[in-house]
Design goal:
The protein is of the alpha+beta class and about 220 residues long. It has six helices and eleven strands. It has a single domain, classed as Aminopeptidase, CATH 3.40.630.30. The strands form two sheets. The chain has an eight-stranded mixed sheet with strand order 2-3-4-7-8-1-9-10, with helices on both faces. Strands 5-6-11 form a three-stranded antiparallel sheet, with no helix packed on it. The N and C termini lie far apart (about 50 Å).
Length: about 220
C-alpha cells in the first residue's frame, strides 16, 4: 500500500512540474530532484539470480573498463575519480565484459551538481548505467539491491539517493523497491545569464544539497 501511495504522489509531482519545465525550457532548465531514503535495518528482499550475468564489486580493471568503453554523457574522469576516492562500484558482466554498473558511497561525494555528505551510519547511492542492449532485464534493480545488501552488512542504517523527477523509469524502480520520498530539490538554470548559475528555488537538506560550483563534470576538466 505504501509503495502504491508513493508512486501516486510521485506521479502527481510530475503532473504539475513537467508542464512547467516545458513552459520554461526556452528560458532555461527547471529541475526537480527527488531525494529518497531506504531503511537498511529491516530485512532486504533476496537477491535475484540473473542468468548469464555475473554481479560483483568492481576492481580497478573494471572501473577503467567503464571509463574507456561504456560511453555515455558522463566524462570518463568522473568515473576514475570515484574509484580514486574509494567509493564502491558494483558491476554486471556478460562474457567477461561490463554491461552495467552502479555506485555507492559511505563518505562525502560530489554527484554531478549535488554535494552528498552522509554520516557514518548512512550511505549514498550514486550514478548508474546499463548499456542499451541490456536494458529491461532487471540489471539496475539487481545492482541496486546488491549495493543495499553490501551497505547493510557494513552496518549502515539508511541509504539515500537523488533521482530526477523527470526520469520516470528511475523513480518508478526506486518506488517499487520500497524507497521513501524525503524531499524535493528544485532549481532553475537560466539561459540568459553569462555564467548560467542555477537559481535555487527549493533547497535540499541532509544529506544532499545543491552545490553547482563543485559540479563533478566541471571538476573533471581541471
Amino acid at each position: 500500500m505504501q509503495r502504491i501511495e508513493s508512486a501516486i504522489q510521485a506521479q502527481r509531482r510530475k503532473r504539475w512540474s513537467y508542464p512547467l519545465h516545458l513552459l520554461l525550457r526556452p528560458l532555461g532548465y527547471l529541475e526537480f530532484t527527488d531525494v529518497y531514503s531506504f531503511d537498511l535495518t529491516k530485512p532486504l528482499p533476496p537477491l535475484p539470480v540473473k542468468a548469464d550475468y555475473s554481479i560483483s564489486r568492481a576492481g580497478a580493471a573494471e572501473i577503467e573498463e567503464i571509463a574507456t568503453r561504456l560511453t555515455r554523457d558522463e566524462p570518463p574522469e568522473v568515473i576514475r575519480s570515484l574509484g580514486r576516492q574509494e567509493h564502491h562500484c558494483f558491476v554486471a558482466k556478460l562474457n567477461g565484459e561490463v554491461v552495467a554498473y552502479n555506485w555507492i558511497a559511505f563518505s562525502a561525494v560530489q554527484e554531478e551538481e549535488y554535494r552528498c555528505t552522509p554520516n557514518e551510519d548512512d550511505a549514498i547511492c550514486l550514478n548508474a548505467y546499463t548499456a542499451p542492449v541490456h536494458r529491461g532485464k532487471g540489471l539496475h534493480y539487481t545492482l541496486l539491491l546488491s549495493m543495499l545488501h553490501f551497505a547493510a552488512r557494513q552496518g549502515k542504517k539508511t541509504a539515500y539517493t537523488a533521482v530526477s523527477l523527470l526520469n520516470k523509469a528511475s523513480w518508478k524502480s526506486h518506488v517499487r523497491m520500497g524507497w521513501r520520498h524525503e524531499f524535493t530539490i528544485c532549481y532553475f538554470r537560466p539561459n540568459f545569464t553569462i555564467r548560467r548559475l542555477p537559481w535555487l528555488l527549493r533547497p535540499g537538506r541532509y544529506p544532499i544539497q545543491l552545490d553547482w560550483k563543485r559540479h563533478s563534470w566541471q571538476a573533471s576538466k581541471n
